[in-house]
Design a protein that fits this description.
Helix content: 55-70%
CATH topology: Fic-like fold
CATH architecture: Orthogonal Bundle
Radius of gyration: 19 Å
Number of strands: 2
Strand content: under 5%
Number of helices: 11
Strand order of the largest sheet: 1-2
Number of domains: 1
Shape: globular
Distance between the termini: 37 Å
Oligomer: single chain
Order of helices and strands: HHHHEEHHHHHHH
């Protein structure tokens, strides 16, 4: 992998640590909230800092937060140490993200899905429709292509605009493949940030306040793919206006972590003065 100075390297250790905690909290809160987690940003901060639970909140929500925070640590470790990413690294990350370890051969954790998975959406003529993601028998090859694309981009130090496009492409293709029985959104939002971090930029974080627009953009793109279940080659996924819209959205989603980095730089500047 190519190496560029991290976005936090110029900061004193204490300022860097505070920044990384803030990013961890924001990233964890928003990514889990997009999937229905009920904990607020303040509660997420408290749980991760104090290691305590919030009365009246589901244990599942607490576990999701702890799992995602540990997964972020794995992402930073992969950025700093891994020569390339293989499917075993993805499996370990999936095991970290999905903390509810119910033993079920039909819903494996740390392995590709073994059964078809579906979702529902509202069509343009206002009807409820089914979407079936690519067949389990296609997943290993599709994900080998996805990993090849990821590793190629980890060898390049991208500029801001280009790495935003790379993030969006990896994110969108991952959730369209839907390789796991659960946790695909959280996994995509973690893994697609690897080239971002490798290029020396803070992670892109999808805000839960924009959940409707974000989810709709994913669905609108997937609706442009005929016979999604039969997709057997990543190159069959189209580059179209719906994908460009998603790319533009993802670049917007840099706002929160960029603001946190600006504030950290201000603190560093005050210290130097």
């Amino acid at each position: 992998m190519s190496v560029k100075k991290s976005f936090y390297d110029h900061l004193d250790d204490d300022i860097k640590n505070i920044l990384l905690i803030q990013i961890r909290n924001v990233w964890t809160h928003h990514s889990t909230s997009l999937e229905g987690n009920s904990l607020t940003l303040g509660e997420t901060d408290f749980i991760l800092e104090e290691g305590l639970t919030i009365q009246g909140k589901p244990l599942k929500d607490h576990n999701e937060v702890f799992g995602h925070a540990r997964a972020i640590e794995r992402i930073y470790d992969l950025v700093n140490t891994a020569k390339s990413i293989d499917k075993e690294a993805l499996f370990r990350l999936h095991e970290t993200v999905l903390t509810e370890r119910i033993i079920d051969t039909d819903s494996p954790v740390g392995k590709w899905k073994v059964q078809s998975n579906f979702t529902t959406y509202t069509s343009k003529d206002n009807k409820q429709e089914w979407r079936e993601y690519p067949s389990p028998k296609k997943i290993d090859f599709l994900m080998s292509q996805w990993l090849e694309r990821l590793n190629h981009n980890l060898e390049i130090v991208h500029d801001h605009k280009e790495v935003g496009r790379v993030y969006a492409d990896l994110h969108l293709s991952f959730v369209t493949i839907h390789p796991f029985f659960d946790g695909n959104g959280r996994m995509a939002r973690l893994l697609a940030n690897l080239p971002v971090l490798k290029s020396g930029l803070p992670p892109i974080v999808v805000p839960q306040e924009d959940r409707y627009r974000y989810k709709l953009a994913l669905s609108d793109y997937q609706n442009t793919i005929n016979n999604l279940v039969d997709i057997g080659d990543l190159n069959q996924l189209p580059m179209n206006s719906q994908k460009q819209y998603f790319i533009d959205l993802c670049i917007e989603y840099w706002a929160q972590t960029s603001d946190l980095l600006v504030k950290a730089k201000e603190m560093q500047g005050k210290r130097i003065k």
